[in-house]
Task: inverse folding
């Protein structure tokens, strides 16, 4: 599965990229239909607390993509919150079928 990480106006560290890849791959294992993921990271202005925004889109062929966007103090926290939201979407999709 291909995971694209796009950091807007800054360079994401290797540690942050590894964290994102680990979390998203684990999430994709819960839904075998996921073919890829796109993660967008940006710092929201003004630069205060709660200014790190992460958006995660899981690509699901022949279905609607799953999407979550969260703002938190750190990118890791925002990614964790997105993963939690996407887990709920995956579970809801299973129940709806």
Result:
């Amino acid at each position: 599965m291909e995971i694209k990480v796009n950091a807007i106006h800054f360079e994401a560290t290797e540690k942050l990229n590894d964290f994102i890849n680990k979390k998203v791959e684990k999430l994709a294992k819960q839904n075998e239909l996921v073919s890829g993921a796109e993660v967008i990271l940006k710092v929201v202005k003004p630069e205060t607390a709660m200014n790190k925004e992460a958006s995660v889109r899981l690509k699901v062929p022949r279905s609607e993509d799953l999407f979550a966007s969260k703002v938190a103090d750190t990118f890791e926290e925002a990614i964790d919150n997105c993963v939690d939201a996407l887990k709920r979407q995956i579970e809801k999709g299973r129940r709806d079928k």
Remarks:
- DSSP finds two helices and four strands in the chain.
- The radius of gyration is 13 Å.
